[in-house]
Amino acid sequence: MREIEKINHTGEVPVMEPQRQFYFMDLAKQYVTQISKKKGRPLTFHVTTFGCQMNARDSEKLCGILETVGFEETDSEEADFVIYNTCTVRENANNKVYGRLGYLSGFKKKNKDMMIALCGCMMQEPEVVEKLKQSYRFVDLVFGTHNIFKFAELLVRCFEEQKMVIDIWDDTKEIVEELPVERKYSFKSGVNIMFGCNNFCSYCIVPYVRGRERSRKPQDIIREIEKLVADGVVEVMLLGQNVNSYGKNLDTPVTFAQLLQEVEKIDGLERIRFMTSHPKDLSDELIEVMRDSKKISRHLHLPLQSGSTRILKAMNRKYTKESYLALVDRIRKEIPDMAITTDIIVGFPGETSADVDETIDVINRVKYDNAFTFIYSKRTGTPAAAMENQVPEEQVKKDFDRLLKVVQDTARERVARLEGQTLEALVEEVNEQDASLLTGRLSNNTIVHFKGDPGLIGKIVPVYLKECHGFYYLGEQPLKVMQKSGFYEKVGEENFCAHIDDAIKRAEQYCEAE
Ligand code: SAH
Ligand code: SF4
Ligand code: F3S
């Protein structure tokens, strides 16, 4: 048990947000200082994130609060405060969390002051919370997706109550702005434009755990991006489960295409990404805005799920194989260099091998730059879970493997089409496997590794795409551009790749075009 002196709350607790949370951040800070003094060292925290970009962004908000109250981030889960931000979209995401909790309890035995918290989508499922109450008593704090903005307040309760604190809401209409955020990357950031989902695809648990669709006001989004840009961000990823229905429920309705046009005007912002686009709501207005934009990246994630119209109907996706293909044609006609990626589910109830053939046919026609393929996972409470004709595992495996092969073959061919070109990449990090390489991302989301100075991280630089290796490129920095920037003199000739002649030729073309 933590031995702490209870701090007297002074003054009124504010009712309004976010002031209320700032009040609790002050209080939490006093507890952190007290414990840290006792231990004679700073307190550490670790946030582990499962699931999608929304969760990644939520984790940055958790980090922002933990740093504000005085914790220091550490790479290890052997920390004073560990929080798992969970996902429940598929069963295996769930199982991973239980597995790792056992391992965390080992750390807690060594450090009795350690606090373990769980939040995110999985916590919105009553049977999960029940299981935690029964079998994982060492967990200190459990909260869900709707009250994440109350994290500071819950943290204070944890310090004070010395028992498992559980706070789960069924839904919320509230969107709290202006809380602290600690970004993972200094130069790029996710930006929530909406929360929740109203689509109820029959296999999907997200609408149940994330609640109804709510859009943020355009002015709040713009203000947030302006601040991010002032703080060094050059690329934003606008986040929503279905960005194409953004703004429909605002007091003054706005379309997603209109929002994009406003974001485009922000000086200093170089690249705009977004996800996810539901095919049923992708408008011609949006295609035009993307076509005419200088900042919107040449990448569209357009989840197909299935290429069989019969299965799409059972999935409640509200488009057909034909209308999806027609949409892709319209996009490719207006924006030929647009990379398209997708999500596919294999093994939805009632799916036959003939249905999978239809999906494969779509893959062959569209030729995706990448496709995330998932084996259908039964989620309790969704309509598909109650369907009787669940597909036997053996058949699913066979269908999955042959579909995956087509995805890989078509994607390899599609990604390779850029070989020999020089394109701009946002340099993101030093390569994890080979520290002499930098890793950058093209506008179309393809990764390129190339030799370069880590000082380029966060900058957009031209890169010659030398060799395609499946889903990524090995590239080189064009010589002239490096000379212009003084980089060539700095690193010396020996640091250039062997294929420099080619690079020079391409670099000259690039510089002339400039
Ligand atoms: N809002 C996004 C998807 C969010 S979930 C959209 O509509 O595209 C991300 C992906 O997980 C989905 O696109 C789907 O392919 C997959 N998925 C969702 N529920 C699933 C389930 N029960 N089993 C397997 N895959 C699932
Ligand atoms: Fe799930 Fe469908 Fe909503 Fe995407 S649009 S989150 S797949 S219900
Ligand atoms: Fe998972 Fe929740 Fe995202 S269920 S995919 S983390 S919205």
Structural class: alpha/beta
Low-pLDDT ranges: none
Shape: globular
Largest sheet: 6 strands, parallel
How would you sum up this structure, described in words?
The strands form five sheets. The chain has a six-stranded parallel beta sheet with strand order 2-1-3-4-5-6, with helices on both faces. The model has no long low-confidence stretch (mean pLDDT 92). It is globular. It has 514 residues and is an alpha/beta fold. It starts with 18 loop residues before the first helix and ends with a helix. The chain has helices spanning 19-39, 53-68, 91-110, 126-135, 151-161, 206-210, 218-230, 256-264, 284-292, 309-314, 321-334, 353-366, 393-415, 479-484, 487-491, 500-513; strands at 44-49, 72-73, 81-86, 115-120, 141-143, 165-167, 188-192, 194-195, 214-215, 235-239, 271-275, 299-301, 339-346, 370-375, 422-430, 437-442, 447-451, 460-469, 472-476. The chain contains 16 helices and 19 strands.
In short:
This protein has 514 residues and is of the alpha/beta class. It is built from 16 helices and 19 strands. The chain has helices spanning 19-39, 53-68, 91-110, 126-135, 151-161, 206-210, 218-230, 256-264, 284-292, 309-314, 321-334, 353-366, 393-415, 479-484, 487-491, 500-513; strands at residues 44-49, 72-73, 81-86, 115-120, 141-143, 165-167, 188-192, 194-195, 214-215, 235-239, 271-275, 299-301, 339-346, 370-375, 422-430, 437-442, 447-451, 460-469, 472-476.
